[in-house]
Write a structure and sequence with these properties.
Strand content: over 45%
Order of helices and strands: EEEEEEEHEEEEE
Radius of gyration: 16 Å
Largest sheet: 8 strands, antiparallel
Shape: elongated
Number of helices: 1
Helix content: under 10%
Oligomer: single chain
Distance between the termini: 38 Å
Length: 149
């Protein structure tokens, strides 16, 4: 069964803001299904102008073991102001997801200098299930609240 659930996310620290929802989804894969949990944050030195900030993506894939699961599994993390990208990073976790077991799939942008604290972290995940006869799909995930809000 494939479904999506949104649950409460991590609490924000003084120098970071995180999404208030963790994206959770089960994917119908060969053998045991995999479950993916993911959330985004923007982290930096608080609301001081001119500080260094980065987009942070954090999550895990839970796998009951068994066969190869995916042909491709990519996480994209963005540091944004409004809807404009400041930095973007793609992390390929195909090998880790196919290693069978729990895989941490953390993906962070590099640090950038920000003059305004209202930055956000967000991104998406690309999954191509092995042996399903279809191409992969990008899933847009809930972004963080703006830093300084």
């Amino acid at each position: 069964m494939v479904g999506a659930v949104i649950v409460a996310g991590p609490q924000a620290q003084a120098d970071s803001m995180c999404s208030n929802r963790t994206w959770v989804r089960e994917f119908d894969t060969p053998g045991e299904n995999i479950d993916v949990e993911y959330f985004y944050c923007v982290a930096g030195p608080g609301s001081s102008p001119g500080g260094k900030y980065r987009g942070e993506g954090s999550g895990r894939v839970l796998d009951g073991g068994g066969l190869r699961k995916v042909d491709t599994f990519i996480v994209e993390t963005r540091l944004e102001r409004g809807s404009v990208d400041i930095y973007r990073k793609r992390c390929n976790f195909t090998k880790a997801v196919n290693a069978h077991g729990t895989s941490n799939i953390d993906c962070n942008t590099k640090y950038g200098i920000g003059r305004h604290p209202r930055l956000t972290g967000d991104g998406r995940i690309y999954i191509n299930i092995d042996g399903d006869g279809r191409s992969g799909t990008w899933y847009n995930l809930p972004g963080s609240a703006p830093l300084g809000s």
